[in-house]
Amino acid sequence: MVTVVDPDGRPRDVGYWHADPSKRALVERYAAVRMDAMPVTAPLMRALLTGEPVMEPTESVLGLLAAGEARDVLAALSPGSASCIPLRGRNRTLGVMTLYFRSGWTPREEDLATAQDVADRAGLALDNARLYGQQQALAEGLQRSLLTEPPEPDHAEIAVRYHPAAEAARVGGDWYDAFLQPGGATVLVIGDVVGHDTEAAAAMGQLRGLLRGIATYSDAGPGEVLRGLDASMALLQTRVLATAAVARLEQTDDERRRGVTRMRWANAGHLPPLVINPDGSVAELATWRGDLLLGVDPEARREESMVTLDRGATVLLFTDGLVERRDADLDAGLARLREALRELAHRPLQEMLDEVLERLVDGHPEDDVALVAVRLHRQDAPRPAVAGPNRVPDVVPEDPASPPRR
């Protein structure tokens, strides 16, 4: 029988076997009930506490168990003795392997040596898994702490998602962002630092902070923001490569009266945004043409593109983990995404993003996935309830089409 210690410190049986098939059901039942009946003086508990092997005859174990099902099942199994061998990690005992021997047979020294070797290897594997999980949780926690909730400008609903890779070692540098500039424009950002480890996650935090500072202080457009970020990376010797796309939603008084919004966007080696029009059609704003990554040439020019959006349109920015698979090329993934968006175009925004993730990565992405989307609601009507409350910084100018702030 194999016992491991849960994160909360409680021992739990996770595996069992018997050489005699007719007795395996009894072993299964014993595993289900023995922990609740076992005192701290039992051999298993002593092996966990001391980290040393403990061997006892069955009579001694039966004498320690209170009357009940656990004691009855062990008596029915009728082993002659038990050896509790700790599963030791680097600095703690992670579990116990208990071997039960038939009556009249005493294990040889080489039997116990082999069992100890198996237990040591199992303990090291468990410890590696524990440390692996801690590293993933640290990197994931760092990422999530930096990926803050977006603002909610009136008549614009913003939704974000971040899903780490299913493989723990592939935690990386994907990020999303959404914020307002001093003039009131809404900015969406999506980016991906090259690499899959805690260093990539840390670099992501640096670049995200730099881009935010440049954009919110300068009130500049997407191309200039990316150029400023490239220059800052070179000056600060941030030796990483990254892709990013920046989109800015802006509007003149005339555009507001006509019910349209301009979106200017610029790209640094990232996949272009997609627009879901009010009629459900999906527009790809550009073909991916391999724009220069951030961190390559601080003098690189960043061209801007512009598109006019009707009210009811939705813009989606995403990282490549959403569409890339080991068994399919990028074009196939983009086609699957466009098809999903056409089918989900009229769903509420939050629901649409959840369903897109479910359809494309099925909850187990091979790479990190970050999404940021904005849906433009009508400005000649109150903010829809589904969009949630209107939340913007006090220093941002009021939207002339919005009710006065209180």
TrEMBL record:
SUPFAM superfamilies the UniProt entry points to: GAF domain-like, PP2C-like
Gene3D superfamilies noted in UniProt: 3.30.450.40, PPM-type phosphatase domain
Signal peptide as annotated in the record: none
Disordered: region residues: 382-406
Highest taxon of source: Bacteria
InterPro entries noted in UniProt: Bact_Sigma-Reg, GAF, GAF-like_dom_sf, PPM-type-like_dom_sf, PPM-type_phosphatase-like_dom
Entry keywords, A to Z: Hydrolase
An annotated Gene Ontology molecular function: protein serine/threonine phosphatase activity
Pfam families, sorted: GAF (PF01590), SpoIIE (PF07228)
EC numbers, comma separated: 3.1.3.16
Domain PPM-type phosphatase: 155-376
PANTHER family, sorted: STAGE II SPORULATION PROTEIN E, STAGE II SPORULATION PROTEIN E-RELATED
Name recorded for this polypeptide: PP2C family protein-serine/threonine phosphatase
Species name: Geodermatophilus maliterrae
